[in-house]
Amino acid sequence: MKKSNSYRERIARRLTMMTALIILVVFTIIYVVVNYSVIENSDKALLAEVQDHLREISLVNGELIFLNKNEWEEAEHSQIQLNPIFIEIVDLEGNTMDRSPNLRGNHLTFLPDRASRDDALTLEIGDEEVRQIQIPLRHEGKIEGYMLVATSFEDSRHLLYNLLKILVVLYPVILISLFLMMRFMVGKSIAPIQIITDTTNQINQKNLNERVPLTEQNDEIGQLARSINSLLSRLEQSLNREKQFTSDASHELRTPLAVLRGTLEVLIRKPRTTEEYESKIQTALQSIDRMSEMIEQLLALARVGKFSNSDYLSIDLLEFGRNFAQKMSHDYARQIDFETNLTLPLEIEVNTKSLHMILNNLLQNSLKYSDHDSSISIRAGIHQGAPFITVEDQGVGIEEDSLDRIFDPFFRETQLLEKPVPGTGLGLAIVKKLALESGILIEVQSKKGVGSIFRLIFQEKI
Ligand code: ADP
Q1: In the chain, which residues fall in CATH 3.30.565.10?
Q2: Which of 113, 167, 247, 297 makes an SS bond possible with 426, Cβ 3.0 to 4.6 Å?
Q3: Poorest-pLDDT segment among 111-120, 316-325, 330-339, 391-400
């Protein structure tokens, strides 16, 4: 629970942080743009006023004054001005020459260092904020003084302040609600993962048949659930196989042990003749041999997969098969032929130890399950682009029903034979495991009373 919570928090936090940055940029842009347009509008109005009032100024006795100041004063008294314009005329040193009545006791500020610039700037008259512009007044080309024109900036400032207030309040409100919403959404979307975790935690060896509930959607979470279920199925199958194998192995070892014990018990009951001793000891030794052989085979089966990579060699399959057939024919004094219709070497990359063990096991079976005078052939070639090697005998053959099971550990068909053939039922299980590990495909063709063909197909295409 804790883990998924922290994941939820982490995602929500990261997304919120990213959004916080984006919103901050957007809000700043909004504020800057509004601020710019408000100032621009106010300055436009100011410039319009300048044009109006410039015409009303006149140079009288070296003094710059308003011509129709009286009208102005009257207008001032008779109407309420929403956006009053303040005007002051100063000489070159900044001394007041005339000013609009609405300034009352106040003065506009003359900035000598901005004398040549005619753009507006924000200043203060008393405790009121204004946008002010200063225009040089020329008479016959000569600057006689300056007209300072200002308009109140209070309303605009108020508007900008309100906008800022709204943005500052909105910012945390948006972010907090976004964080909570994201946490909720992320929590909701990872809820199925929590169910998967809970179910998987409850599964152990005893209830390995349980499965993670599947969601309808085939999204990433659905795929995860399906993958876990297929992993569980594989585990269950392999555990069942393991259980079956252990029980079969114990059963198979118990039989010769029981024979051994029975034989020795019979021997100990009363004194016996030398012949009887010899015969019973022979039986006991056979049981021990059978157990040894089985333990050998079990060890071989356990060792599959322990070959190193250095056993992977590039070999000529024809030469390998020919040598193998020759050696086996010699060792077992049986007719073992090697056949191929290829003339050029057939190069394959293979684990040579595995291949040798597989061929040996197949050949041992062919030797065991066929008459001594029948021949065995090893054939190599290419079929549909894939190299192959077969071991063929003209022996007893295998029942069709058994073909699927001959590779299972401990499976034997010997009870069907007239004379029992020694064996453990592990040889083909070893072959299958080795082939699987080396990437070799095995096919079997067999007919009861006719013979069997075991074909090894190598994956690499030529
Ligand atoms: P084992 O030979 O020790 O019984 P295997 O695993 O090698 O064990 O073989 C399993 C079974 O498959 C054998 O018991 C036999 O019935 C059958 N089998 C395998 N190879 C042949 C063959 N070449 N001819 C006839 N039967 C075979």
Answers
A1: 304-458
A2: 297
A3: 111-120
**Contact, 420 vs 414, CB < 8 A?**
yes
At 81 the pLDDT is: 56
**Distance from residue 367's CA to the centre of ligand 1 (Å):** 10
Using the 8-state DSSP alphabet, how is residue 81 labeled? -
- For a mutational test of ligand 1's pocket, the pick from 298, 369, 408, 442, i.e. the residue with the most ligand atoms closer than 8 A to its C-beta, is 369
pLDDT tens figures, 199-232: 999 998 888 899 988 877 788 888 999 999 999 9
- pLDDT tens profile 355-384: 999 999 999 999 999 999 999 999 999 999
Inter-CA distances, 381 with 353, 354, 366, 377, 457, Å: 20, 19, 20, 13, 10
State what percent of residues in the chain have pLDDT above 70: 93
Q: What is the mean pLDDT of the chain?
A: 88
Which ligand 1 atom is the nearest neighbour of the CA of 417? 16
Query: For the chain, where do the domains classified as CATH 3.30.450 start and end?
Result: 2-160
453 DSSP β-pair partners: 392, 445
User: Relative to the CA of 424, which ligand 1 atom is closest?
Assistant: 3
> If you write DSSP's letter for every residue of 81-111 in order, what string do you get?
-SS-EEEEEEETT--EEEE-GGGTT--PPP-
For β-strands 440-447 and 451-458, DSSP reports them as antiparallel
**Residues facing residue 441 across a β-bridge:** 457
Pair type for strands 376-383 and 336-340: parallel
Relative orientation angle of helices 352-368 and 317-332, to the nearest 10 degrees: 40
**148, β-bridge pairs:** 88, 134
Give, in words, the CATH class of 220-301: mainly alpha
Supply the Cα-derived Rg of the chain in whole angstroms: 52
Choosing from 406, 430, 446, 450 the residue with most ligand 1 atoms within 8 A of its CB, the one to mutate for a pocket test is 406
**Do residues 285 and 315 touch, judged by C-beta distance below 8 A?**
no
Atom of ligand 1 nearest to the CA of 393: 23
pLDDT in tens, 225-275: 999 999 999 999 999 988 998 999 999 899 899 999 999 999 999 999 999
- Give the residue ranges of DSSP H helices in 270-316: 274-303
Percentage of the chain beyond pLDDT 90 is 56
Architecture, CATH, for domain 304-458: 2-Layer Sandwich (3.30)
Residues with CB under 6 A from ligand 1: 365-366, 369, 393, 395-398, 406, 411-414, 423-429, 452
Paired strand residues for 84: none
Contacts of 9 (CB under 8 A, 6+ apart): 183
Query: Does domain 2-160 bear CATH number 3.30.450?
Result: yes
